[in-house]
């Protein structure tokens, strides 16, 4: 089976004046299709940094990251943007919806950016919004929706392009317990239905227990 993401001995550090801060240290990771992984660790341990590396937003100081057989080393910014759009979806603690666009147009946006027609984008966006149970809220602005609804739209937007892997950074951290459970179950359900991988960064061990694999990041490595 071909892996979706493969990291070989990646490290990441930055300098702040005289100090060299090592965040990720010689880390290996292989992510398979349809696999669900939770990454746990204390605040400041580098969980979000690792997710940014996996998503190509940051570049490792050393080592290799391969996404769907493509080595990220040497890619131009435009090539990285295209690879990210074709292979990855992102969900964050804060939904980052476009406040002046309704639910339908927010979900259509990634498809329009990829060059799909208005009609095609609308059809696909409506389909995924129906899947997440929000086909009755298509014309509502983010400000007119609950926190749980906004996060469902963010998930729909992340999945509308059918990515190979969904990267989620504390996706339920801003929700009450009931909505958090519903959103988590939805991500797991869609992950399995689309045969895509799911990687969640979280502090919550209850969330982690629902994943197939749990990795604890400490001192830049998995314990």
Number of domains: 1
Structural class: alpha/beta
Element pattern in H and E: EEEHEEHEHHHEHEHEE
The number of distinct β-strands equals 10
Question: How are the SSEs placed, and which strands pair?
Answer:
Elements: E1 5-16, E2 19-31, E3 36-40, H1 47-54, E4 62-67, E5 70-71, H2 77-87, E6 88-92, H3 103-113, H4 118-131, H5 147-159, E7 165-169, H6 177-194, E8 197-201, H7 205-208, E9 213-218, E10 221-222
Parallel strand pairs: 3-8, 3-9, 6-7, 7-8
Antiparallel strand pairs: 1-2, 1-4, 4-5, 9-10
Describe the 3D structure:
The structure is a single chain. With 223 residues, this protein is an alpha/beta fold. It has one domain (5-222): 3-Layer(aba) Sandwich (Rossmann fold). The protein has helices at 47-54, 77-87, 103-113, 118-131, 147-159, 177-194, 205-208; strands spanning 5-16, 19-31, 36-40, 62-67, 70-71, 88-92, 165-169, 197-201, 213-218, 221-222. The strands form 2 sheets. Strands 6-7-8-3-9-10 form a 6-stranded mixed beta sheet, sandwiched between helices. A hairpin with a 2-residue loop joins β4 and β5 (70-71). α4 packs across α5. The model has no long low-confidence stretch (mean pLDDT 87).
